[in-house]
Every structure is written in C-alpha cells, then in structure tokens.
Amino acid sequence: MQGHAQLVYPRSWTRGKPTLKGDYITISQPEEYQPYECANLVFDFSGLRTPKDVTAFVGQYGLLKRTEGLEKVTDILAEAAAVRLLFQMVIAIRRVDTSFLRDIWQISDFAKLFEAPPKDDDELLAQASVLVAWTINENLAGVPHGLIPEAAFEVDGVSGSPGIFLWVAYPDNLLQYIYYQLAMTINLKTPLASCTECGRIFKVEHGNQEYCSSRCSNRARIRRFREKRQPGQKQPQ
Ligand SMILES: [Zn+2]
Predict the structure, then answer these.
(1) Cα of 122 to ligand 1 centre, how many Å?
(2) How many CA atoms lie within 13 A of 129 on its CB side?
(3) Angle, to 10 degrees, between the axis of helix 73-94 and the axis of helix 98-105?
(4) Rounded CA gap, 34 and 82, in Å?
(5) Considering all CA atoms of the chain, what is the largest pairwise distance in Å, rounded to the nearest integer?
(6) 161 alpha carbon to ligand 1 midpoint, in Å?
(7) Is 43 among the domain residues?
C-alpha cells in the first residue's frame, strides 16, 4: 500500500546516550520511542537555555532533525528560544500584555510580515496572532495529516475502541513533533504560564499556579523565609 495508507502509525524517533563534543552533540546506544507518548516534549524543549540542558534533552528525546550524526548545540538552543518566544507571545496575547509585544516588535519577525508597527493595541494583538500562526505553519509546512484508528493501538495492554479515530500529523523529525505539539496546545486553549521562579513555560493545572514544579515553589518559599528574617538574627544551632 502506498501514500497515506502507510501512515497509520506515526513515525518513531531515536534517542540515546548523549555526548557533547565542543559545540556539537551526538547520541550512541540508539533506542526508538514514540514522541506522541511524551506530553511534556514542547515544554521541556522551550526550557532549554544551556549546553547542559541540551545534553539532558537529547538523552531523553534525541536530536532535532536527524536520528544519528552530529547537531550543533547553538542551533538547538536557537530553535528552543524561538519556541519559547512563541509561547511567551501566546501568553502575552491572552493576557493583553501589549507592552511585552511592543518590546519585541523590532527584534522578532514582525517586520517580515508587516510594513509598519501597529497604530494601536488592537492592531498589535492582531499582528502578533498572525505572526504566531504564520511561524508555526512555516515549521509544519509539508507535514502530512491522517487518521489513526484507536483500535490499532494498545495502551497498557488494552486495545483501543473500534470506531474511534484521531486526526494527527505525521512529522518527519523531532522538531516537527515539537511544533505540532505547540500547535495543538494553542488549538486546545491549554492554560499556560511562565514560572515566576525559573521562567520555564508550563501547563497550568490548577487556579493561579505560579510555579512550574514543587522544586521551584519550595525554592521561592525558602527565599521568602530567608528575606523575612531580621538582619543580624541568628539561626538556632
Ligand atoms: Zn520553575
């Protein structure tokens, strides 16, 4: 069978033991896995800021565009910064945070699409929405879509229900999986926030959640506790 008939199962990807060589990273001991089973992929990616972060990410998810060989760490960090900026723009649009969007008008890709800065906040928000959609679509250009029958899968040893189908993308590489997950997060109106402690973008699970993890909320609580202590006051031994 040819064409879309082959596409019942989305492509797997390869991860492995990461090795950093200067500005390059590679993997050994390759192991296949299914990125669709990794709900935090796009959030983990958007949090990458250092070569050490990239090494941990590649160990968990693999390289971005190839299953073997070398990739440049600075390129991976640049892609992660681009995804992070898209998340920050979506959060700013939702909160009508026009000062953030105005600050990044000159330094991001707005000028590629629009001749002049917006004359008012409504136009700024509309331009930002267009830029977010355009950038994500550019990164998903050529990615086929198709139906997956749930019955073709087993989850925890239980077969999916016949008659239930999912409409999904068939990415060629991990970066396309990341952009597809980003697109779905926006499409599903997933509540998003940036962690007050570490700046990481996360999915808000409850109320006014400020921190991405219990690690960050604990760290913030300890710091507040230390700041509250009177200067010169001694800790009991
Ligand atoms: Zn955090």
Answers:
(1) 31
(2) 12
(3) 140
(4) 24
(5) 77
(6) 38
(7) yes
Q: How far is the CA of 205 from the centre of ligand 1 (A)?
A: 14
pLDDT for the residue 160: 83
Domain that holds residue 20: 12-143+174-190
Distance between CA atoms of residues 101 and 110, nearest Å: 10
**Cα–ligand 1 centroid distance for 214 (angstroms):** 8
Q: What one-letter code names the amino acid at 233?
A: Q
The total number of structural domains that make up the chain: 1
CA of 81 to the centre of ligand 1 (A): 16
According to DSSP H, which parts of the chain are helical? 41-46, 51-61, 73-94, 98-105, 110-113, 121-139, 174-187, 214-228
Distance (angstroms) between ligand 1 centre and the Cα of 194 equals: 8
pLDDT of the residue at 232: 58
Whether 45 is in a domain gets the answer yes
> Domain for residue 3, yes or no?
no
For residue 58, report the distance from its CA to the centre of ligand 1, in Å. 20
| Residue ranges, the chain, pLDDT below 70 | 1-7, 155-156, 230-237
Determine the distance separating the centroid of ligand 1 and the alpha carbon of 211, expressed in angstroms. 5
Residue 209 to residue 197: CA distance in whole angstroms? 12
Give the residue from 70, 76, 57, 68 showing the smallest Cα distance to 13: 68
pTM, entire model: 0.89
